[in-house]
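Q: What changes when iron/sulfur cluster is included in the input?
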Amino acid sequence: MGICHSYTPDGRCVSLLKILLTNFCLYDCQYCVNRRSSDVPRARFTPEEVVTLTMDFYRRNCVSGLFLSSGIIRSADYTMEQLIRVARLLREEHEFRGYIHLKTIPEADPALIEQAGRYADRLSVNIELPTDASLQTLAPEKHIGSIKGAMQTIYTGVQTVLNEPRAPRFAPAGQSTQMIVGADDTDDSTILHSAQSLYGNFKLRRVYYSAFSPIPDSPKSVPLAAPPLMREHRFVPG
Ligand code: SF4
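A: The predicted holo structure follows.
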């Protein structure tokens, strides 16, 4: 539990400690167990605790790196700063040479995304759903413009390094995204078309699909035809 697998640019499979900085969240995405209206117990790591945990696992050879995400705390910028702090402490104070994948908060200042790329091997921004209409219905606080804007910032950073070898390091393992499938009646060809356009426009390394998985005891007040979903398994503090 809490360890996932990913692939490095040269094709090696690596084990990553996959955790949330916190499962507290200001947003209310209806497919997410950590949404604001969910009654799950909340917990939060400090950046220093995540660093200690990562180094402990890494030194014991249990993981080759960290995959860090977070619910939205206080603001997009503040949350992104906390994620960057973890990566910076690992790289600069602990000389961590392992793999770092940081989930990017779409609404964060592009300057913060650029900073994240200095420390992370891979950055990812979740597209969340295959169509803008699905996003508006199920995650109304998220905006396709912000999501694609963040992808564009990452794309530009990666291209800059490719075109200017002396440019500062930026996410050498590129970017990926995650799309939830099965949340509504979007057909397969629309899903594949959406993925194809992301690969083409932003040169994504991978679109990950996450199956919609109902949570049986979800509150009845959630205004959904289907129950809210567990989007993926991630270790949270507690
Ligand atoms: S998907 Fe992310 S932003 Fe939306 S409620 Fe869950 S943790 Fe918050």
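Observations recorded in class: Confidence is low (pLDDT under 50) at residues 217-225.
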